[in-house]
Write a structure and sequence with these properties.
- The structure is a single chain.
- The protein is of the alpha/beta class.
- It has a single domain (2-118), classed as Response regulator (Rossmann fold, 3-Layer(aba) Sandwich), CATH 3.40.50.
- 26% of the residues lie in helices and 15% in strands.
- It has helices at 7-19, 30-37, 58-68; strands at residues 2-3, 26-27, 47-50, 74-77, 85-86, 113-114, 117-118.
- It has a 5-stranded parallel sheet, with helices on both faces. It has a two-stranded antiparallel ribbon with strand order 5-7.
- Helix 3 links the parallel strand 3 (47-50) and strand 4 (74-77).
- Helix 2 (30-37) runs parallel beside helix 3.
- The chain is globular and about 30 Å long.
């Protein structure tokens, strides 16, 4: 599952992952992705989500997914630069753990979520 509201990035990401041999299901909205994620019997080996999504943010969507399927493999992405990043190493649906993932191994990281969040600069 790839979730991104930018059609060009969504198309590029899906094409790239398809060339690596993955079956990819694209979604342009978090709401649509959430509905599909909750469908009984539907499972995704990896969810790749843009952090900056309208209505339901990528981080919020990932937390919702983790609340119903704690072992979901996930990558939360952002196209916005940040000077610093903060990541949590705690386990559970309220924390997101950073791990390096090579594109050819995406979705094979042992079920741990993959994410880093920009930390706001202190004034």
């Amino acid at each position: 599952m790839v979730v991104d509201d930018d059609p060009a990035l969504l198309g590029f990401t899906c094409k790239y992952l398809s060339r690596l041999g993955y079956s990819v299901v694209p979604y342009r909205s978090s709401e649509e992705a959430w509905r599909q994620f909750q469908t009984p019997g539907v499972r995704f080996s990896l969810v790749l989500i843009d952090q900056s999504m309208p209505v339901i943010s990528g981080e919020q969507l990932l937390r919702m997914m983790l609340s119903v399927e704690p072992g979901v493999r996930s990558i939360l992405t952002s196209g916005y630069p940040s000077k610093r990043k903060t990541c949590s190493n705690r386990a559970g649906p309220d924390s997101l753990s950073p791990q390096a993932v090579h594109p050819g191994h995406a979705g094979r990281n042992g079920g741990s979520p993959v994410a880093c969040f920009p930390q706001a600069d202190a004034d």
